[in-house]
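note to self — DONT lose this again. spent like an hour looking for the file last time. sequence + predicted structure for the chain T wanted, 176 res
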Amino acid sequence: MLSKPKIPKKPSLFPLLIYLLVLVLWGCEGVGSKGVEDVKVGGRLPAFSLKSLSGETITSRSYQGNILIVNFWASWCEPCKKEMPMLKQLAESSEAKVVGIALDEDGPKTVKPFVEKYGINYTILLGNQDVFNRFQGFGIPYTLVVDREQQIVGIYRGPVTRETLEQDVKKIQRGV
């Protein structure tokens, strides 16, 4: 009797694909991940350098030593608009500096008239998707509360109340 010849099995591509996937993901984690890792309570504020509406370049370092409330927003965002009166009040009455980072795609063309119409009394910077991504943003409004050493004390995705922000500011003032 003749025995059937043994046909070698085709090597599976699955282990190779898994290996390649792990390499790609591992490589991506190292690229730019520092900023993402820092966007957590206890992490440091990601560095930024953005233009103000007056054309001046403002950096995150310029706020060193100040309590900071950073709010990402856009003129078309209804929840963002609802927060603005509260942020204006905080800018007037709080020890914290309020900074709005506008994410409107056409920049000052839309943002400047909006700021004038709503009487915004705090610093407005012109952001973009790259900056928003570096701050691990995925929805607005998006607010960070930062202490004097630029350590993140609070992260708020979606609308936040004045009381919540004031509690964070008081916690920083007490050194808690």
